Automatic annotation (TrEMBL):
The lineage of its organism: Eukaryota, Metazoa, Chordata, Craniata, Vertebrata. Keywords: Immunoglobulin domain. Residues 51-142 form the Ig-like domain. GO terms for biological process: axon guidance; dendrite self-avoidance; homophilic cell adhesion via plasma membrane adhesion molecules. It holds the Pfam family I-set. It comes from Aquarana catesbeiana (American bullfrog). GO terms for molecular function: cell-cell adhesion mediator activity. GO terms for cellular component: axon; plasma membrane; Z disc. This is Ig-like domain-containing protein. PANTHER family: BASIGIN RELATED, PALLADIN. Gene3D superfamilies: Immunoglobulins. The keyword Acyltransferase does not apply.
Length: 198
């Protein structure tokens, strides 16, 4: 479209496409003569907008209470999407000493929880949003209680206390106590049972 306003002539191309690229020449002439100038129009390709998509989704995870855990995924999109984390209906908007959110230039996302507690269990959602769309994925985090195994001493058989070999204990035969019982009286431990089978 050609526009003339206050002695200014303009060529307006709207919308511009790659086919409009090229050399343009403006020619001005009157009875006294003619003049012209040329310029080149370069049309840069616009990046196509692509909605976010998960290349790797969050996975359901379980961990023993007190241990760290990582919830990880990978997302792509153009322009690069904004990332949002939620636990249940609560937004996770900033890092703390125990819970932190990480993101690199390759689309990898990570929610790191240090020293997990039972309260950390629940459903976690990560959302990615740009001008072309929004996408979300959800996974479950379970926190398992740590079981402490009780160490019950094994029952060992020893000869009756009337024998000088009653000094047989968990650590083996105490020679000094065996031959000098009056100097080192033997105290039978609960894990030791007298038996004549030896």
């Amino acid at each position: 479209m050609l526009v003339r306003e206050n002695g200014v002539h303009s060529l307006i191309i709207e919308p511009v496409t790659s086919r409009d690229a090229g050399i343009y020449t403006c020619v001005a002439s009157n009875r006294a003569g003619q003049n012209s100038f040329s310029l080149e129009l370069i049309v840069a390709a616009r990046d196509a907008h692509k909605p976010p998509v998960f290349l790797e989704k969050l996975q359901n995870t379980g961990v023993a209470e007190g241990y760290p855990v990582r919830l990880e995924c990978r997302v792509s999109g153009s322009p690069p999407p904004q990332i949002f984390w939620k636990k249940e209906n609560e937004s996770l908007t900033y890092n703390t000493d125990r819970v932190s959110m990480h993101q690199d230039n390759y689309g990898y996302l990570c929610l790191l929880i240090q020293g997990t507690t039972k309260e950390d269990a629940g459903w976690y959602t990560v959302s990615a949003k740009n001008e072309a769309g929004i996408v979300s994925c959800t996974a479950r985090l379970d926190i398992h209680a740590q079981w402490q195994q009780s160490h019950t001493p094994k029952t060992r058989k020893v000869r009756p206390s009337t024998s000088r070999y009653a000094a047989l204990s968990d650590q083996g035969l105490d020679i000094k106590a065996a031959f000098m019982p009056e100097a080192n009286p033997v105290h039978i431990q609960p894990a030791l049972v007298e038996s004549d089978d030896l």
